[in-house]
Amino acid sequence: MMLALRPGDTMLTLHDYLPSLNGWKARVLLGLLHVPYRTQPVAIFSAESRTAKFLTMNPAGAIPVLELDDGRVLAESNAILTYLGTGTRFLPGDPFAHAKVMQWLFFEQYYVEPAIGTLRFWTLTGRLERNAGGMVDARRETGARALAAMDRTLASSPFLVTEDLTIADIAVYAYSHRAEDCGFVLDSYPAVSAWIKRVAGLIGSGYPVHPYGPEALLTPRGDVEARPKLI
User: Fold this and answer.
1) Is 14 exposed, middle or buried (0-12, 13-18, 19+ CB in 10 A)?
2) Which among 47, 73, 72 is positioned nearest to 58, based on CA atoms?
3) Torsion of CA 148, 190, 229, 139, to 10 degrees
4) Which end of the chain lies in a sparser environment, N or C, as judged by fewer CB atoms within 10 Å?
5) Where are the domains of the chain?
6) Could you tell me the pLDDT band of residue 20, with boundaries at 50, 70 and 90?
């Protein structure tokens, strides 16, 4: 399946919140594939992702959501990567290599995003102290375990699955390359550090990581939930 659009085709729509690194993954792959799309901003801290209309697109109320030109919608960042990557150089057609990509996509959502992503969100939005103790310690341990697992793999391979960049690398890179935002020392993982430089070189500089705005900061009353599925 190739996603190049012909003149006159309706564009894809990405429902997104710019500081989200889950949304960033989709933006990167759309850009690398040269697929035109429009962005529909979602003010998740104003509950726009909890409206009845949005919940028909993603019952979990989370971004990103990719809306196809025929009205069908697809949620979850790694599902979006898989859809966009199918039939391209970013997702191997060989069944075993394909399954290995899936392995790393599951790894990212189980070990990387909930640990490094959550700690980063808490750190940058003033929530770390409120969650201090067991919640922070457990995530820090899981994040270190994830980086160590990546380091063991990347010590003998330039990328996570093949000799080239795949959606596995894009997915895992998203939060891993910002791990120092929440206190991890990437120099302690030399193979990961070298991989981050390789991936950054291939992705290029056109996909900035947007900072959280004041809407994401913890309010004095603490009335914004501690960790929405958006980080």
Assistant:
1) buried
2) 73
3) 40
4) N
5) 95-203
6) very high
